[in-house]
Amino acid sequence: MEIVTTVSKKENAPKTTERISGSEAIVRCLLAEGVDVLYGYPGGAIMPVYDELYKYQDKIHHVLTRHEQGATHAAQGYARISGKVGVAMATSGPGATNLITGIADAQIDSTPMVCITGQVSSHLLGSDAFQETDIVGISTPVTKWNHQVTKASEIPEVIAKAFYIAKSGRPGPVLIDITKDAQFEEFDFEYKKCTAIRSYNPVPDVNVTALQKAADLINTAKKPMIVWGQGVILGTAEAELKAVIEKAGIPSAWTILGASAIPTAHPLNIGMVGMHGNYAPNKLTNECDVLIAIGMRFDDRVTGNLKTYAKQAKIIHFEIDPSEVDKNVKTDVAVLGNAKESLQQLLPLLQEKKYPEWHQQFKDLYAVEFEKVIKNDIHPTKEGLTMGEVLNEINIQSKGDAAIISDVGQHQMIACRYANFTTTRSNITSGGLGTMGFALPAAIGAKMAAPDREVVMIAGDGGYQMTIQELGTIFQQKIPVKIVVLNNEFLGMVRQWQQLFFDKRYASTEMVNPDFVAIAKGYSIEAKKVTKRDELKEAVSEMMASKEAYFLEVCVEKEDNVFPMIPTGASVSDIRLC
Amino acid sequence: MSEQINTYTVSIYTENNVGLLNRISAIFQRRKINIESINSSISEIEGVTRWAIVVVISDEGIRKIIGQIEKQVEVIKAYYHTDDQIIYQESCLFKIKSDLLFEDDQIKNIISANHARIVTVERDFFVLEVSGNKNEIEVMYRELKPFGIMQFVRSGRIAVTKEELKISTLLQAFSA
Ligand SMILES: Cc1ncc(C[n+]2csc(CCOP(=O)(O)OP(=O)(O)O)c2C)c(N)n1
């Protein structure tokens, strides 16, 4: 590679470009965007890029996952814990289609991710060539933006746009499909970052009038309640939120994706809303007089039946995405903009307040939930182990410092309910899509992006086996993640529904499982299985002390249920404790 | 939130990019909303495409759809209008046997009464073009039907709005 200064004939001005191939340009663009690690899987249509990755391996680390889905989830885990853009790469055809679940997950959970796929040569497009799929067509409804490149000269601009779009405004996944001939073609390379696109307004301006209206409503409220979501984390508005909460003295709850933005132990943190959230914030959603939603989108798992959701309350919605306003819940005041800026501007308009009686209502309902549910979950007296006590033990031994990467199911709800968070970006889980198999690969990405943090993955025996092959990635890359499988020998969450709503007809939810310890050991991962309560503490402590990857299987009660629960279609205030 | 169903004409200004049709139509398809007609063309601004999409939908539904359309990176701006807020036209072509044109005066009367235009006259057939709103075209269709229509085709609706849309100002603000 040499740098040549070509004098362009037309402009007669010297121009510093380099003549390189499209595939080298791809790697150079990634480097220019600060990418130091990416996840992927090679194949015919992307081989020229892998050849360049080989040349640049001292600058950019490509992690070979065991499946392209794993590459996307790893990129997501990387992005979720760091706020940086995660990058995944795959070949055309099956490689590209294997990315789709992760892309859909990133789309619904607003995760910044750039996926690069190889494509058959441009002259073969549309001819049903070997490993040709219309990945741009397939990925359209689940990407924030996508684009096919057929000429090398387009690569720098398109990749620059991809990164800008993925991370700006409400983040999301972008897919770039690059034909093989464009990868081979040589051109004069020059890279400029993208800073604006004329048809795209990522962050609407904060409207001062709306903000003042919101402040007035908050200042005159008798029973205000905040529900914050991931928008706070994506907008790095944690400190601003804390300042608002503390000054205005407002009891504040969170959605699953908002978890950890404010420490669990904060006195104004009243817990989780939604289907398996805490009793008090769900119940009192239907009693508050002003509901302040910050960076959350009123998902149906949060609101339950919309017809009976917070009807008595004035609704204020702080939101970056205008299409979310009035989508599910009609708002009285919408404050568009980035949460950080909006909350910064809101703070001086707020009066200092405390609501001791209102707050006491939350405490009283917490006491009810503790007595009926929490106590039995985390300090059980029955013989079988509970998922809650495992979480409690992890809390104690990690001092709440661990990032918890959970899969999907009962254990996920238990993890979100009981994990003790002290640091933001510590609850990484598939919220909107509920993708089983998310956790193990996501934990890989999270640990690589935050090597100094303790990363504990928690999965059920079902979801774990959906991406269990990523143990190979952990083994090969020597990634010191802690892998906890809470084994109830059931697809627990589905079994719970079958028990409650289908008269215990356990259709295809019982699992006959392999020897998980032997499998982990097959990958040279230290492994232990716990079946009794008195073994738990020591096993967790051994796991936490380990400097390497560690696998811990905990055999838990087979037919435990997660409560509280808002049955589908029921109102938040009809939340059941048993 | 009213559940009343209305005909709306959606006007969208976008960048001229491959794949946008797919992206926009997916927004309707996902909500199982039938597109009555769709038209895409150049607009008054160079390099900017204008779309006209007609849907029958509730007021709340159309507002949400517009939000989803505007959210797309390559969409500059999207609007929706009821029929009284726009000037709109559709255009259609009739292919009819030539001898009728010469033998039957009634057809000539229909042509002039409906402000139709003869596009071409061939040995075996002639082609009529007429523009108007859906009703006007339907009237013409009914009148010609008895004579035997060899082929008929109607375009999607195109529309301009009575109010100013200020797209140029929007784009200027960007380049400033
Ligand atoms: C890919 C995928 N398939 C199916 C489901 C439906 N589903 C939700 S939870 C669940 C059971 C999960 O079982 P397991 O992983 O053992 O966890 P547990 O609920 O027992 O903690 C299933 C099948 C899903 N969320 N994702």
TrEMBL record, chain A:
Residues 211-346 form the Thiamine pyrophosphate enzyme central domain. The keyword Metal-binding applies. The keyword Transferase applies. Belongs to the TPP enzyme family. GO terms for cellular component: acetolactate synthase complex. Transmembrane segments: none annotated. One of its GO terms (molecular function) is magnesium ion binding. It catalyses: 2 pyruvate + H(+) = (2S)-2-acetolactate + CO2. This is Acetolactate synthase. Residues 21-136 form the Thiamine pyrophosphate enzyme N-terminal TPP-binding domain. Keywords: Amino-acid biosynthesis, Branched-chain amino acid biosynthesis, Magnesium, Metal-binding, Thiamine pyrophosphate, Transferase. Its EC number is 2.2.1.6. Binds 1 thiamine pyrophosphate per subunit. It comes from Ulvibacter litoralis. PROSITE patterns: TPP_ENZYMES. Residues 407-554 form the Thiamine pyrophosphate enzyme TPP-binding domain. One of its GO terms (biological process) is isoleucine biosynthetic process. It holds the Pfam family TPP_enzyme_M. Pathway: Amino-acid biosynthesis; L-isoleucine biosynthesis; L-isoleucine from 2-oxobutanoate: step 1/4; Amino-acid biosynthesis; L-valine biosynthesis; L-valine from pyruvate: step 1/4.
TrEMBL record, chain B:
InterPro entries: Acetalactate_synth_ssu, Acetolactate_synth/TF_NikR_C, Acetolactate_synth_ssu_C, ACT-like_dom_sf, ACT_dom, AHAS_ACT, AHAS_small-like_ACT. Pathway: Amino-acid biosynthesis; L-valine biosynthesis; L-valine from pyruvate: step 1/4; Amino-acid biosynthesis; L-isoleucine biosynthesis; L-isoleucine from 2-oxobutanoate: step 1/4. Keywords: Amino-acid biosynthesis, Branched-chain amino acid biosynthesis, Transferase. One of its GO terms (molecular function) is acetolactate synthase regulator activity. It is an enzyme of class 2 (transferase). The keyword RNA-binding does not apply. Pfam families: ACT_AHAS_ss, ALS_ss_C. This is Acetolactate synthase small subunit. It comes from Ulvibacter litoralis.
